[in-house]
Amino acid sequence: MEQLTLIGPFSQVIPMTGIPIKGPVSDDQLEIIENAGILVADGYIKTIDTYKKLLSEVKDLHFKLIHLEGNHICLPGFVDAHTHICFGGTRARDYAMRNAGKTYLEIAEEGGGIWDTVQQTRKATKKELVKGIIKRAKQHLKNGVTTIEVKSGYGLSVKEEIKMLEAIKEAGEQFPLDFVSTCLAAHMLPRDFNGAPESYLSEISEQLLPFLKKEKLTNRVDAFIEKGAFSPSDIEPYLSKAKALGFDITIHADQFSAGGSEVAVNFKAVSADHLEASTFREIELLAKSDVIATALPGASLGLGCNFTPARKILDAGGALAIASDHNPGSAPMGDLLTQSAILGTMQKLTNAEVLAGITFRAAAALKLPDRGKLKAGYLADFSLFHTTDFNEVLYNQGAFKPCMVFKNGKLIYDKHNP
User: Fold this and answer.
1) End-to-end C-alpha distance for the chain, whole angstroms
2) 78-364: CATH, from 3.20.20.140, 3.40.50.410, 3.50.50.60, 3.90.1640.10
3) Each residue's pLDDT tens digit, 68-106
4) Residue 404 forms beta bridges with which residues?
């Protein structure tokens, strides 16, 4: 027998339906359902209609009622499609040095950078990593995130990458968000590896990837294609092996120099993330492909560099997602809503484009077709805000937070009863 829950009334429900996966979106394309209710059955949306009509339809059935007092608008649960929230230690010193004028290379030479986090993550126990993931995930939940991608990549050895991915899995079992894990063993060549990049990647592909597939620790493989990390020629054999094993591919692309997005297109990757250095050529390649272009404004804010050319990507016909890149080095803020609102201001994105970028287009970057919209058959994941106008959410640039968050139709966060 179905477990029915009726939630409402809402001043507005913004279902994010009827919007294409690619290209620009005007605000008048947004459907707005007023005085609405959402009927949930076994964790999925059954019906969205006027609250009064739904109440009369279920009055003779066995159902749970969550009646809302005051004004609320309802948005789909946000999807953060790119984070690195599994790590040990801190890089606050890096941030101070960077703002004082030190370059990335100088910081690395003085003991900072990714390798610093690798060393601290290796020292951490799996239990400590799980605790850290959950602590950061709570922050994302309070910002309305109901699905979060989490990468490895600070282990950089077979043993340590497994530890990270097991920690991500355990955190997902202990905390009510949906965690999507990604193997980023190809983050950089570890300094303690005695060999060339191709030897390291070969070892990872032969010893780590088959184990991850067998143990079902992840179905996604990421790689950082950049000067100081891996070149396209380094990474292509590795990606070929990953693809042959059945992994989905995603790429850290065009962050400081172009080249990664072309690899993403050639390998039919699910997404190409960063893209701050993408030129007209890369934008056209991405727009003509099915690769989701994922902007990471948190990294731009953390590093003080250009934003992803989001406006140009959309106008060229590309699919744009927006993610936080929450990590200890370049993007420590981890506030998807604030970053997305700022990106909208800096790139002149419509509210509809920003919301699409953190809902169903972000879900597409994770190959999750069952969320990011509010419609029958989709997961009942949504966030409520105390207002009568959904435009207030982005207008306040992240200062206006959800008052309630629902996952699978269950209230998992209540601002007034944390």
Assistant:
1) 31
2) 3.20.20.140
3) 999 999 999 999 999 999 999 999 999 999 999 998 778
4) 384, 414
